[in-house]
Amino acid sequence: MRRPVAIVGVALSDCGRVDTATPYALHAQAARRALADSGLDRSVVDGLASAGLGTLAPVEVAEYLGLRPRWVDSTSVGGATWEVMAAHAADAIAAGHAEAVLLVYGSTARADIRAGRRTANLAFGARGPLQFEVPYGHTLVAKYAMAARRHMHQYGTTPEQLATVAVRARENAALNPEAMFRDPITVDDVLSGPLIADPFTKLHCCLRSDGGCAVLLAAREYVPDTAKAPVWVLGTGEHVSHTTMSEWDDFTVSPAAVSGRLAFRRAGLTPADMDFAQVYDAFTYMTLVTLEDLGFCAKGEGGPYVEQGTLPVNTDGGGLSACHPGMRGLFLLVEAVRQLRGEAPGRQVEGARLGVVSGTGGWFCSSGTVVLGRA
């Protein structure tokens, strides 16, 4: 039994600087807005996917939202979580194990750090494989910086090319009224900023924000009752690579090389068919290498490709300029759906009918890729 599956509702909660809401409140706000966007009643939702909150998420989230789902997913693989969850939800609906699945996320990461309720140090209290790298001061940003340096050494990628990624993201954010940072920046601004981890300066790195979002997937039978045009899930793929840096075979190849190939093959499409790409961009190098690994250009040619800038990428401004509350993958799906519906005024990709979304988790530890289309 295989049924076509569509995304029928998407929404953001309040995002950016949200000092008074709790993460649960952002979950609820995003969920209500996504249901309203879909035009469906909450009674049709029999599946829930959630991660990153509480001991028993999605059980706690379901209770807070007043839902009693018969299908749940709490897969947590970092920033790729939501693309992987979307794949699992689509498979469950296609197989008849669920009718409508809500993916929902909310985080007050920025507000919590400012209030001293949490730390930004992911190595604090490290156990498992991470403990072997922590004594050497190997922070998350340092892991990404090492990978970027390897690409620069191996393929001649330049700091200016990486900086172009940040500049393009800000140009897109300037057209997005929901983006947190909208003031224009230049390549020189990026290169001259405070050094965080060579070669990354501050503007090579994502912002930290509060915010949440939700995506509702449903079986084809529900589409006639929805308020908006459906966006169909055409193909998905997932892959995990490593946790310990010494176990990463090649710093210039991300797990999107596998998840992307699977998603495009299952969709019966190629990168050349895509009208845009929404990819995870916690750091500028992520955008460059993900576009390579998805097949938009050959390995090693990501620098010139992002400089050329012919493909619309991260049209909302991405994690570099729009929002980044912790696990941004679900925001990529929201922006992709808005583009395919023609609901992105000012930044709309004209005639967009097909798009790819690819989330990355950890330090290139995991990847989930989803191909979406209007028809």
Brief synopsis:
Helix content is 34%, strand content 18%. It has helices at residues 23-38, 59-65, 81-94, 109-114, 140-155, 159-173, 187-191, 256-267, 284-294, 302-308, 318-321, 329-341; strands spanning 5-12, 47-49, 71-73, 100-107, 195-197, 200-201, 211-219, 231-240, 276-279, 354-361, 366-373. The two termini are 21 Å apart.
Order of adjacent strands in the largest pleated sheet: 3-2-4-7-1-8-11-10-9
What gap, in angstroms, lies between the N and C termini? 21 Å
Radius of gyration: 19 Å
The computed structural class is: alpha/beta
Count all strands and give the number: 11
Helix and strand pattern: EHEHEHEHHHHEEEEHEHHHHEE
Q: Give the mean pLDDT.
A: 93
Helix content range? 25-40%
Main beta sheet: strand number and arrangement?
9 strands, mixed
Estimated share of beta-strand residues = 15-25%
